[in-house]
Specification:
heterodimer, A: mainly alpha, 13 helices, elongated, B: alpha+beta, Muramoyl-pentapeptide Carboxypeptidase, domain 2, four-stranded antiparallel β-sheet, 6 helices, about 55% helix
Chain lengths: ~280, ~160
């Protein structure tokens, strides 16, 4: 028998104990008296005393712990009869020192404690598994979250906090009001920084002009300013355009030269060429 | 009989210019006769055919490899690996004159315009043109320039 079955049986036992405890004593006595069937008034009175004694004995049985003296078998027998007959049969088959017998001898208080602890365990199980990043505080469930009204209220509160529409607001058209107050005015863009002093610009442009004038005119601000060396002569701003240096030619040597001439005279025979050659200079 | 070029040149130099000219023209006439006999109709022979047959006969005599060059309207014969370069170049010119006269029935004046290590260029010209070219070459004008002047509109006077 596993733990769940034990728990279920213990719960059922506890319920029956509670039910029996709430019953009027007369009913319990009647059950006893029916069994005894007293004939006279004295016997009835005696039976009532015996019944009270049995009740007291029953209370004593409940309160007596396991370490105390063993309860009388006759006093415990009616209590056991009122609870379950099948359990009794099983108890008779098993030895008295088994764990099963000790469980049946558990007091009501212990059963209540066990039941309470089980209820606590059940309540501690969260309804929704919290996300791992939520933290320990959000993982504890709200006590009223299981109720439908409470859930609805929680959703309304959440919608009010997050700004999301509630269930009633879904499908409705909401007219937004125009914002009150002065219109939004954007700040004017920041003015660009003033250019550097002309002395620094002239120095940097002079170095670039001497090397590659086209690049210097195209993007002078991209090029890093060159440090003016001691040998660089001062250049006025008007001389920048006139100081352009053209790139020299790669080489003055003629690489390809056509020495041949189109052949205007195409003799058909060797004799024709010979006659043409003999006619030169005449 | 095989005679070295140097011994032949020395012999002809000692014999005098007239003997050299006669010897050369007689040698060339024999070559021209062989060419005309092989070609048959020489008047319609192409430049390639003349270069092949004339060059073949000259190569058999050991005068080098023949190439026909055309400088404008001027006809120039180039000999590569020629043993008569430099000092023997005039003898080669007389051989060419005799061969052309015999094969083509034309009287030409062969002028050595270029003579280097083993390359000789001989231009086939008329009498007056040959004198002008020789004069230009003696004055230091290059053979290409001389041939160019010869083909100028005024006859390069």
């Amino acid at each position: 028998m596993n733990t769940e079955e034990k728990v279920s049986r213990l719960r059922g036992l506890l319920e029956r104990i509670r039910t029996n405890s709430e019953r009027p004593r007369r009913a319990l006595a009647s059950s006893v008296t029916v069994a005894s069937r007293p004939a006279s008034e004295a016997e009835r009175h005696k039976a009532e005393e015996v019944e009270e004694e049995l009740v007291l004995l029953d209370d004593d049985i409940v309160e007596v712990s396991e370490s105390a003296a063993p309860p009388p078998v006759q006093a415990a027998a009616p209590r056991a009869d009122s609870i379950d007959f099948e359990e009794e049969e099983e108890e008779e088959a098993k030895p008295a020192s088994s764990r099963r017998a000790r469980a049946l001898e558990t007091t009501v208080d212990e059963l209540e404690e066990v039941s309470g602890s089980l209820d606590d365990v059940e309540h501690e199980i969260p309804i929704k598994t919290p996300p791992p990043e939520s933290g320990p505080q959000s993982a504890t469930p709200a006590p009223a979250a299981a109720e439908p009204g409470a859930v609805h209220a929680a959703e309304s509160d959440l919608a009010a906090i997050s700004g999301a529409p509630t269930v009633e607001q879904l499908g409705q058209t909401i007219d937004l009001e125009e914002s009150e107050g002065p219109p939004l005015e954007l700040a004017p863009p920041a003015e660009p920084e003033p250019p550097p002093p002309p002395e620094e610009l002239e120095a940097s442009l002079f170095v670039l002009e001497s090397r590659e004038p086209a690049v210097a005119h195209a993007a002078p601000e991209v090029m890093p300013p060159a440090e003016p060396g001691p040998a660089s002569p001062p250049v006025q701003s008007k001389a920048l355009e006139a100081a352009a240096v053209q790139r020299p030619a790669a080489s003055d040597v003629v690489v390809v030269e056509h020495l041949g001439a189109p052949r205007d005279f195409r003799p058909a025979s060797f004799l024709e060429l010979l006659d043409a050659s003999l006619g030169l200079g005449q | 009989m095989l005679v070295s070029a140097d011994a032949l040149i020395s012999l002809l130099r000692s014999a005098g210019p007239a003997a050299e000219t006669d010897f050369g023209k007689q040698l060339g006439t024999e070559i021209g006769r062989l060419v005309s006999e092989r070609l048959g109709s020489v008047d319609s022979a192409s430049i390639e055919e003349i270069a092949e047959h004339l060059g073949g006969e000259l190569a058999l005599l050991g005068l080098g490899s023949l190439t026909v060059e055309q400088w404008g309207r001027a006809l120039v014969l180039r000999f590569d690996h020629c043993p008569l370069a430099r000092e023997g170049a005039p003898l080669l010119a007389r051989v060419i004159e005799g061969a052309v006269q015999r094969a083509l029935s034309r009287t030409v004046t062969a002028v050595v315009v270029d003579s280097e290590e083993d390359v000789v260029r001989v231009a086939l010209l008329g009498g007056q043109a040959a004198e002008r070219v020789s004069r230009w070459l003696s004055s230091g004008v290059g053979y290409a320039e001389a041939l160019g002047r010869l083909q100028a509109p005024g006859g390069a006077a």
